[in-house]
Automatic annotation (TrEMBL):
Region (Disordered): 278-308
Sequence similarity: Belongs to the CRISPR-associated endonuclease Cas1 family.
High-level lineage: Bacteria, Thermotogati, Deinococcota, Deinococci, Deinococcales
Name used for this protein in its record: CRISPR-associated endonuclease Cas1
Known EC number: 3.1.-.-
């Protein structure tokens, strides 16, 4: 079991790592999960621990994990979301959302997305986050995109010169992968990793991967939005470094390098914090077992009671 330097025999699982909003999470590898009474036990070659399912919000299952049907049911009953991810969380393959999870943050995202003024405000904020020095006031969205294009172009040129890797343009075809240049292969492998981590962060914090602000029209539009906040800083240095290094297994080396780099940056926690900052997600969730409210045009009314 890994994630925050877990040692099986000594780890105090009551002190789970948290995102900024208090969401508790745990990342496991090479572990078998089975139900034990009302709890869940995790069996690993180094030992066994009982997971505090009732206080666990998100469980990320990495390579080598297996989980029984009853363990999944026990975790779901407590509101824990299960995410099946690649090594170090660098890819997301599937997810299961605990049935008692609150929709508060998703509703907030939908409100911001549906209102043109708030939608534009989030778009501007997402672009501004990419410029440490900020952007000039009064720019149109088209002008902001121009600044972003120049930032990306300059970053590619800078890393190309630093690593001695020729850079012409971002170009590859999935149907003709082998003809792509090494740097384009490295970038594609790196982008897949950061998309997976962004997807995991979005689901873990209760937002929708489909309701994008900058990107639109795809089921992963918001994943692309979030990943673009960090690509230049996170993916480019590893991709150019590995493309400049002789040897085989370029894509594997990129994935391994990014796994370590993103872990050192605590990027999952950073993404969660930035998501709440962007979408105003610091809400107090209702009691997990309480019934949901009933919609009313004058404001939601209490559910679970007879209104006769």
């Amino acid at each position: 079991m890994t994630g925050q330097g877990v040692v099986w025999e000594r780890q105090n699982l009551r002190a789970l790592p948290k995102f900024r909003d208090g969401t508790t999470y745990l990342y496991l590898e090479h572990t078998r999960l089975e139900q034990d009474g009302r709890g869940v036990r995790a069996y690993h070659p180094d030992g066994m621990v009982t997971l505090p399912a009732a206080s666990l919000s998100v469980l990320l299952l990495g390579p080598g994990c297996s989980v029984s049907h009853e363990a999944v049911k026990a975790l779901s009953d407590t509101g824990c979301s299960l995410l099946w991810v690649g090594e170090g969380g660098v890819r997301l393959y599937a997810s299961g959302i605990g049935e008692t999870r609150s929709a508060t943050r998703l509703q907030q995202q939908a409100r911001l997305w549906a209102d043109p003024d708030s939608h534009l405000r989030v778009v501007r904020q997402m672009y501004t986050m990419r410029f440490p020095q900020g952007l000039p006031d009064g720019l149109t969205l088209a002008q902001i995109r121009g600044h972003e294009g120049a930032r990306v172009r300059d970053a590619y040129a800078r890393y190309s010169q630093a690593h001695g890797v020729k850079w012409e343009q971002r170009q590859y075809k999935q149907s003709d992968w082998n003809r792509a240049t090494p740097i384009n292969k490295a970038l594609s492998a790196g982008n897949a990793c950061i998309y997976g981590l962004a997807h995991a962060a979005i689901l873990a914090t209760g937002y929708s991967p489909a309701l994008g602000f900058v990107h639109t029209g795809k089921m992963l539009s918001f994943v692309y939005d979030v990943a673009d906040l960090y690509k230049i800083e996170v993916v480019l240095p590893i991709a150019f470094r590995e493309a400049a290094t002789p040897g085989d297994d370029l894509e594997r080396r990129v994935r391994t390098g990014l796994r370590d780099h993103m872990t050192n940056l605590r990027l999952l926690e950073r993404m969660a914090s930035d998501l709440h900052h962007l979408l105003g997600g610091d809400h107090t969730d209702p009691e997990p077992t309480a019934p949901g409210d009933l919609w009313d045009p004058r404001g939601d009314v209490q559910g679970g009671i007879n209104h006769a």
